[in-house]
Specification:
This protein has about 325 residues and is α/β, with parallel strands linked by helices. Helices cover about 45% and strands about 20% of the residues. It contains 11 helices and 10 strands. Strands 1, 2, 3, 4, 5, 6, 7, 8, 9 and 10 form a 10-stranded mixed sheet that branches. It is globular and about 65 Å long. About 45% of the residues are buried.
Length: about 325
């Protein structure tokens, strides 16, 4: 009888421990967020991804009642900031953005990648896709892709193209263009997009395969020359710039995308709160118009679709990396 009583008391005590232990987690999920949330952007200030996430972060602050504070941590094609996100405490108070370079091309380009895009993150929401545009410095004196190819063939290894870092869509766009046209243009990776664009305008590098929002204003102002956009149709704000297909380069589907992620072990109730909040924001015509004005195409998708998208992109870009023989510089 004493043994039975002891077992009952032990079971009751264990149940109380479990209940008490779970209580703070449930309370945190129910009241989340209770303090400011850090949003890691693994790219420099002023780039397309940075502009878009700042708009979303501002709206999330209003939606969920706490500041969402953007922190830029650029370098190594976005992998430095992405590693920081993967290693952050999984409590919902550190989230960040991922892109084609951090969650797809990195798998094929970095043999010792310190994180796994499939298992080290909890997908939350896909925001947008960012077309690429080929631009050249005006001092190069070319006005079409054909002229650029001819110039590159005349001067193998003497032209440079800049990018926002190894493994980015800008980098692989250039490598694929080189492969398709049999030209030798030297890749110059930068830590941030601002420095690359400054050097491009100044003629220190001659070519870029950049995200449209980064260079659209410079093309419109005549500081850079647009040779082609990767969209199916001409971009409304750059009607004079042909598509790649019009310029004679078919099936050149090079574009970036950005989504929001959290560390893998973040409670589902917390990621669910974030997903629902972003979904509401992405229904706002004002937010969608701001994304389009920034030079991106809204591509709203929830956590499940984002996870499937990451899987598909890893496989697709592995083929591009192999076919183009792209390497880290």
């Amino acid at each position: 009888m004493i043994d039975n009583l002891t077992k009952r008391l032990s079971g009751l005590a264990a149940g109380l421990v479990i209940a008490v232990g779970c209580a703070p987690i449930a309370a945190t999920a129910a009241t989340y967020p209770e303090r400011p949330v850090r949003v890691i952007v693994p790219f420099g200030v002023g780039g397309a991804a940075d502009v878009i996430i700042r708009v979303v972060a501002e709206q999330l602050s209003r939606e969920l009642g706490q500041p969402f504070v953007v922190e830029n941590r650029p370098g190594a094609g976005g992998t430095i900031g992405t590693e920081a996100l993967a290693r952050a405490k999984a409590d919902g108070y550190t989230i960040g953005i991922g892109s084609v370079s951090t969650h797809a091309t990195s798998v094929s380009l970095y043999p010792n990648l310190s994180y796994d895009p499939r298992t080290d993150f909890a997908p939350i929401y896909r925001l947008a896709a960012i077309p690429n545009v080929m631009v050249v410095t005006p001092s190069l004196g070319v006005r079409t892709m054909r002229e650029l190819v001819e110039r590159a063939r005349e001067k193998p290894g003497q032209l440079n193209f800049g990018s926002n870092g190894n493994g980015t869509s800008q980098h692989l766009g250039g490598e694929l263009f080189k492969m398709r046209n049999g030209v030798d243009i030297v890749h110059v990776p930068y830590r941030n997009i601002g420095g690359m664009i400054t050097d491009l305008i100044g003629g220190e590098v001659q070519v870029a395969f950049d995200n449209l929002p980064n260079v659209m204003g410079h093309v419109k102002a005549g500081r850079l020359v647009g040779l082609g956009v990767t969209t199916k149709d001409r971009w409304p704000d750059l009607p004079e710039v042909p598509t790649y297909a019009e310029a004679g380069v078919a099936d050149f589907d090079i574009a970036s995308w950005i989504g929001i992620f959290a560390p893998a072990a973040t409670p589902e109730a917390v990621t669910g709160t974030l997903e629902a909040g972003v979904a509401r924001i992405m229904q706002s015509e004002e937010v969608l118009a701001t994304i389009r004005k920034a030079g991106a195409e809204p591509r709203p998708a929830g956590a499940g679709e984002l996870a499937r998208h990451v899987d598909a992109e890893i496989e697709r870009w592995a083929q591009v990396v192999k076919a183009s023989n792209a390497k880290l510089d």
